[in-house]
Specification:
Elements (H helix, E strand, L loop, with lengths): L2 H7 L4 E5 L5 H14 L1 H4 L10 H8 L6 E7 L2 E13 L4 E6 L3 E2 L8 H16 L3 E4 L29 H7 L1 H4 L2
Parallel strand pairs: 4-6
Antiparallel strand pairs: 1-2, 2-3, 3-4, 3-5
Length: 177
Amino acid sequence: MNAETRALSRLPALAIRPVVRDDLPQLLQLCAEHAEQAAFERLPYGRGHHDPLELLEALFEPPLRAWAWLLHAGDETVGYAAATVGFSMLERGYYLQLEPWHVRAPWRTSGADLLLLQQAQALALKLGCLNLQWQAPTWSAAPALPGERATRIETVRHVLPLAQRAIDAVAPDLLHA
């Protein structure tokens, strides 16, 4: 047994559960860490909202528009995942879109990805979604569920930030119709 294996074997067991309102500080901290690590990838998205009001509405106000889970190692929160439902016109059905998830080191190699993917898969099945989708940079080794076949589809993602002034300048008649 090498030193890394011994160190991992001493880590507390991982547990996962849905986010509740009282978890907001831990979730926001993990999101901030994640955003800092992925800053280069996030450049085209523009600024996010600092006020958590929309996050709270999406997670807790009916109709729910987002779901999130926290990953715990003992009493420590070590990761999260979040998802939203999208609709495919071509398949005429819903799919669950798993956002890029975040797990703190050293738990990244301890099956945390699999736990988060399994939670998303369970929700997708519960909601009657046609499939579960997630995106990862091409350099990433984003996992698939064991025993499941996930097809990797290379695409180019285009991101158009929609600042309110840009929307008003481009389509003022559409917004006030």
